[in-house]
Write a structure and sequence with these properties.
It is a single chain. By secondary structure, the protein is α+β, with helices and mostly antiparallel strands. Helices cover 54% and strands 13% of the residues. The protein contains 12 helices and 16 strands. Strands 3-4-5-6 form a 4-stranded antiparallel β-sheet, with helices on one face. A hairpin with a 5-residue loop joins strand 8 and strand 9. It starts with 5 loop residues before the first helix and ends in a 6-residue tail after the last helix.
Length: 526
């Protein structure tokens, strides 16, 4: 048996439920452009009817409905799509960093261009060729000196830029570590807050959205494993825990370095922005720094095979190796070559020391390139300070006249200058990054560096483009499920508005019925 005011109670439930639906629709519309927001829905159900079967039930047939109520307000979200997105997002972060680093390396190498190392090298060889045409020309010597200084400056500057890029990557790794620790601390706090709110029987929809957005951001930085437990998200990198319920475990650069391992992807850290930074620093930047060092050192001291023409006078006591492995010593009357002789010399330095300056008595040339400290590298290579101070100390002659203290160089002889200009096309021995040895000209080696960089940059950009498409596709699928559609929400708003109006009209009708019942009946006996 229903009460007199049963209809009013039914109408009230409908008004409350439709109000909640309208408010939720407004909440969705308000957050249509909020990052990470998942649309929410009011789950309506018929309220418990009257007259359930029982011993004391009335004889009135059927059950009388009591209206509508909402059991919960839940967000629309699919964890499967979240896992897919995070899996693609980590690869996106990795390739973004690698592609960006390779673009920066291409800017540093700056080839092909009119201001890169190749142009400076060409100018250097050309200056020797010009000097060989007039070895006594003071201007030609100064041009060789300035071209050499420009070459060493180019090596020094490029090496500094590579070193700065490596430092930037190291600093960025530390920045990302700080960001990771900040995110995991916030996620652990959200785990605690969500557990508290939902322990009271509510749905912490907005808090869950915040936690998922932070987890998405974290997935781009490092490859993470996410397990949803009763205490919240447990997040780890391989076997390294970051959050367990309400507890956060800060990480460090050293811990991520150990997780990176050898960088072949087999370690716990195998994707994400931090992985990309380690790869960029340890593989790309370090490799090109090493190749640049090899190039600089090879120009100065790399083994080359040259043929010294007959008539040349080698410095007394000079010992040179031949291509077949024998050694030749030039002393006394044996200093004068009676025939063309093929020998191995150590780069431009070794060849320069075979010639003579214009000093009296004849003086052999010094090392043309030296190091500011230690071995010659791209960072330390420099023109010999004595030559930088006095261009007349550049050796160009391989012939002398006189003997003993009266021996002087033949100033007009250009044999050494010609040989030095021709080593541009000579085959040098280069030490490869894996410890092997390869041969080729200076131009060949530098061309290989530029070519390798171009191919790597192109491949990284291709991978980045593919990964962007994959991540966008998964995110589009997520948005199709969880995103807010303004058109759909407007349609719902109209639907709930009409339902609210109908419920209000129902209450008005029932109010009129009760008014008639109370005020218009029971007049007997008046």
């Amino acid at each position: 048996m229903s009460s007199t005011f049963h209809g009013i109670e039914t109408a009230k439930r409908s008004l409350f439920t439709q109000t909640a639906a309208l408010n939720t629709t407004g909440h969705n519309i308000s957050n249509a452009n909020t990052a990470g927001y998942s649309r929410q829905v009011v789950n309506m159900q018929a309220s418990r009817p009257m007259e359930y079967p029982g011993i004391s039930r009335s004889n009135v047939p059927g059950q009388l409905g009591t209206g509508v109520e909402f059991s919960s307000i839940t967000r629309v979200r699919q964890s499967f799509l979240d896992d897919q997105f995070r899996n693609e997002n980590k690869s996106l972060g990795n390739w973004e960093i690698q592609a960006d680093t390779l673009n920066k390396l291409q800017s540093i190498v700056n080839e092909p261009s009119d201001s890169g190392i190749r142009t400076v090298l060409d100018n250097f060889w050309k200056s020797w060729s010009d000097l060989s045409k007039d070895p006594e020309n003071v201007t030609g010597r100064k041009i060789v000196r300035e071209s050499a200084i420009a070459l060493t400056d180019a090596f020094n500057q490029t090496s500094k830029q590579l070193r700065d890029l490596s430092t930037d990557l190291s600093n960025n790794i530390q920045v990302k570590v700080n960001e990771i620790n900040s995110i995991v601390t916030t996620i652990s706090n959200l785990n605690t807050e969500i557990s508290r709110v939902e322990g009271l029987g509510n749905d912490a929809n907005d808090l869950r959205d915040q936690r998922d957005l932070l987890t998405d951001n974290l997935s781009k930085i490092v490859n993470i494993n996410v397990v949803n437990t009763g205490a919240g998200y447990d997040i780890s990198i391989g076997g390294m825990n970051l959050t367990t319920g309400g507890t956060a475990t800060p990480t460090t650069v050293d811990a991520l370095t150990a997780a990176f391992g050898t960088g072949d992807g087999s370690g716990d850290l195998n994707s994400g922005e931090v992985f990309g930074m380690f790869v960029a620093k340890n593989k790309y930047v370090a490799d090109y720094q090493n190749q640049l060092n090899v190039l600089a050192n090879s120009i100065a001291n790399g083994e080359i095979t040259i043929t010294i023409p007959a008539g040349s006078m080698l410095p007394d006591g000079t010992t040179l190796k031949t291509p077949d492995g024998n050694s030749l010593t030039f002393a006394g009357t044996n200093r004068l070559l009676t025939q063309d002789t093929t020998v191995i010399v150590n780069g431009l330095n070794g060849l320069h020391k075979l010639g003579y300056t214009f000093d009296t008595p004849a003086k052999t040339g010094d090392d043309f390139f030296t190091s500011a400290s230690g071995d010659i590298t791209a960072d330390s290579i420099r023109l010999n300070p004595t030559i930088a101070a006095d261009a007349s100390l550049i050796a160009t002659s391989l012939r002398t006249t006189g003997t003993g203290g009266s021996e002087i160089a033949v100033k007009g002889n250009n044999t050494l200058a010609v040989l030095l200009s021709n080593i541009k096309d000579s085959k040098f021995s280069f030490t490869t990054t894996d410890g092997g040895v390869t041969t080729g000209s200076i131009d060949d080696y530098f061309r290989a560096i530029v070519g390798q960089l171009g191919v790597q940059g192109q491949e990284a950009q291709r991978q980045l483009n593919n990964q962007q498409v994959l991540a966008e596709q998964v995110d589009s699928s997520r948005q199709a499920v969880s995103g807010v559609s303004i058109d759909e929400e407007m349609s719902n708003m109209i639907k709930f508005q009409h339902a609210y109006g109908a419920a209000a009209r129902f209450m008005t009708a029932y109010d009129e019925i009760l008014e008639k019942l109370i005020n218009g009946t029971g007049t007997v006996g008046r």
